Task: inverse folding
């Protein structure tokens, strides 16, 4: 019988495809602006992004920060507000934003060049108080230059998206927000529910006003001191004060990053938990995230690393294994004695003389000893390196 090798090869290939499809199914989901393929080796498993704040004032300072950030070749850019100084006007928005970041924005409606080459938005802004100046809201719907310029998810004032192992939550911390800014507001309820449902290892919250700050007067906004850690957030990133600071409260990090282009503020008395303070030069944050680690750095325009903060993801809980129980065997009940008839008694001959049989020596049977092996517990590590404190 002749065997056609070509058809054997085709059959083998089809069998392998069926095997792979059954044992290694792919889950494909369309997250915001990126196709994520779970179960494959994908670049989406690791992301690097820049964070800029209080940057939207065209000039040499903003240009220097732009050069710094684009030099990292980040996957995308997130802002912490005040994108368009001083009044959020349509007359200045393209000059303050598009002039520097048009190649990250999609769709880009300005005049400074082409939009994002991938036709995928890679610029995610947060509303700041200067962006709010000329906005109007009616019945929960807001209009103005900011909403005309950007195309964003949800109601565009606060929204979330996923990139790789990070879930991003961008809030509106301005007092003019129709859904409120207190911990019991509609916006806070939205965040709490979204955080509870998120499955990614890293959950970062962005807003403009800082919950804590070492800048006096208008530095901190107590109304936005929500229970972020209790709700499941990894860290909070904000701006508003024009300097860089990291505040640690109960092991939870608050970053203030407001030196993206406007004049720099000094500090007052350090608040409780203020770990790093820097007002020496403009700069931005570079964040790198994988499934197992998250590293946030602040870098100034001289390319000096001012602060580095790293976290390790908690290992997944061990899945208990069910040990099969051996079947129990039942011992049959003892036999019931029966009455045996007595035979007639006969005379028994004398008993034989007993002889002493030597007893074999007793040997000790070794007893097995159970060894208890301690299983080390793994606690997520928290590391941060020497900082420059000014």
Result:
């Amino acid at each position: 019988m002749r065997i056609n090798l070509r058809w054997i090869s085709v059959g083998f290939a089809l069998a392998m495809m069926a095997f792979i499809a059954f044992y290694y199914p792919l889950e494909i989901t369309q997250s915001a602006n990126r196709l994520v393929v779970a179960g494959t080796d994908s670049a989406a498993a690791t992301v690097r992004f820049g964070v800029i704040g209080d940057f939207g004032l065209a000039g040499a300072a903003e240009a220097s920060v732009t050069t710094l950030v684009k030099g990292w070749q980040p996957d995308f850019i997130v802002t912490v507000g005040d994108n368009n100084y001083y009044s959020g006007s349509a007359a200045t928005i393209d000059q303050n934003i598009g002039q520097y970041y048009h190649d990250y924005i999609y769709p880009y409606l300005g005049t400074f060049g082409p939009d994002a080459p991938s036709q995928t938005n890679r610029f995610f802004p947060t509303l700041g108080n200067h962006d709010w100046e000329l906005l109007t809201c009616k019945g929960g719907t807001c209009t103005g230059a900011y909403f005309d310029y950007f195309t964003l998810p949800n109601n565009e004032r606060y929204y979330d998206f996923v990139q790789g192992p990070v879930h991003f939550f961008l809030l509106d911390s301005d007092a003019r927000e129709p859904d409120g800014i207190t911990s019991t507001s509609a916006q806070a309820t939205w965040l709490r529910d979204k955080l509870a449902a998120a499955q990614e290892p890293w959950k970062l919250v962005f807003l403009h006003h800082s919950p804590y700050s070492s800048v006096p007067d208008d530095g901190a906004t107590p109304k936005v001191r929500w229970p972020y850690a209790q709700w499941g957030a990894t860290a909070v990133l904000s701006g508003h004060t024009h300097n860089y600071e990291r505040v640690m409260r109960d092991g939870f990090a608050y970053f203030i990053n407001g030196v993206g282009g406007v004049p720099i503020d000094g500090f007052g008395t350090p608040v409780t938990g203020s770990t790093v303070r820097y007002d020496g030069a403009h700069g931005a944050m570079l964040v790198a995230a994988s499934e197992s680690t998250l590293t946030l750095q602040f870098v100034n325009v001289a390319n000096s690393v001012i602060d580095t903060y790293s976290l390790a993801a908690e290992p997944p809980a061990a899945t208990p294994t069910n040990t099969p129980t051996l079947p129990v065997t039942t011992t049959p009940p003892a036999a019931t004695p029966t009455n045996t008839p007595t035979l007639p008694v006969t005379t028994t001959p004398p008993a034989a003389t007993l002889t002493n049989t030597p007893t074999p020596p007793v040997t000790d049977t070794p007893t097995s000893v159970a060894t208890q092996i301690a299983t080390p517990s793994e606690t997520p590590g928290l590391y941060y390196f020497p900082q420059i404190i000014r």
Summary: The chain has a mean pLDDT of 81. The longest helix spans residues 5-23.
